[in-house]
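[step 3/7] inverse_fold.run input=structure_tokens len=93
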């Protein structure tokens, strides 16, 4: 199992190994514990979101990819409050 912190900003999303207080300024920080294979799948989805943002793709495409990350990561959230937030966000993005 791998422990990572998902940082969900308004226009960016990424994972880090440590939770540092400055991440809270960027957006919501969610602790995830997941199997290795799921980590790599989630990492690929996050790279897709970042690529779409950098390429200036349509906001609808970015939002769809962002929702995929939230949907995939929700079941790995350590805290129930974070899990509920993720489920709520995937319907609002």
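[step 3/7] decode complete -> sequence:
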């Amino acid at each position: 199992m791998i422990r990572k912190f998902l940082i969900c900003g308004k226009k960016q999303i990424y994972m880090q190994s440590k939770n540092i207080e400055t991440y809270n300024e960027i957006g919501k920080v969610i602790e995830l514990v997941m199997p290795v294979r799921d980590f790599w799948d989630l990492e690929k989805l996050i790279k897709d979101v970042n690529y779409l943002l950098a390429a200036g793709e349509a906001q609808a495409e970015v939002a769809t990819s962002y929702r995929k990350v939230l949907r995939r990561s929700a079941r790995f959230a350590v805290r129930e409050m974070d899990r509920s937030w993720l489920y709520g966000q995937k319907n609002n993005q």
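[step 4/7] annotate
The longest strand covers residues 2-9.
The CA atoms of residues 6 and 15 lie 4 Å apart.
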